[in-house]
Amino acid sequence: MSMSEAEEQPIRVAIIDDQEMVRQGFGALLGAQPDITVVGDAADGDAAVELVRRTRPHVLLMDIRMPRMNGLDATRAVLARQGDDNPRVIMLTTFDADEYVFAALRAGASGFLLKDASAEDLVQAVRIVAAGEALLAPSVTRRLIADYAARPEPKRRATLSQLTERELEVMRLVASGRTNAELATALFLSEQTVKTHVSRILSKLGLRDRTQIVVAAYESGLVTVAD
Asked: Residue ranges of the HTH luxR-type domain (predicted)?
């Protein structure tokens, strides 16, 4: 979903969790927001894939541990279409150090959210991800990504030679968790110019969102946990 689309229509959200109380609670909180519409919910990954096909949500809140098909497999199935209208996936987890968070990033999730997050954090998370921002809590971002990048599984190694010096600078700041507004202030640029640089980075590296920029920055060695 582009920013212009986000400004013209409500953010369409689907909620996938095997606990009915979680689905109802999140649905009530999000449905009360004027810029968010809850288009449906499901209790397992199989149902999630069908729900996404029918309702075309912009953002998918996806539990990791579910019966029949877990959230990781469901995320892979949903994002396998590689369409422009693929939803952005927020994985729901109980612990910020959950081992499945690493697999969620590899599956293409845009971030994760703790299930005990406040109502304000939940609503803000949906808005952040819908706008194309990364959703990785500052307290765990560097540890999470650095650990992920150091794992022995085969990884996509970002080729950064095609990026300009300015784009590399923007990429470093994105990896530090800064928003477009914060980048604009730090670089003495307009926010629109920052958005253009971010879009070019995504296009040149074949990435789908800012979370993948963060991962690629660590994988390529552009940013390290010591930075």
From this structure: 156-221
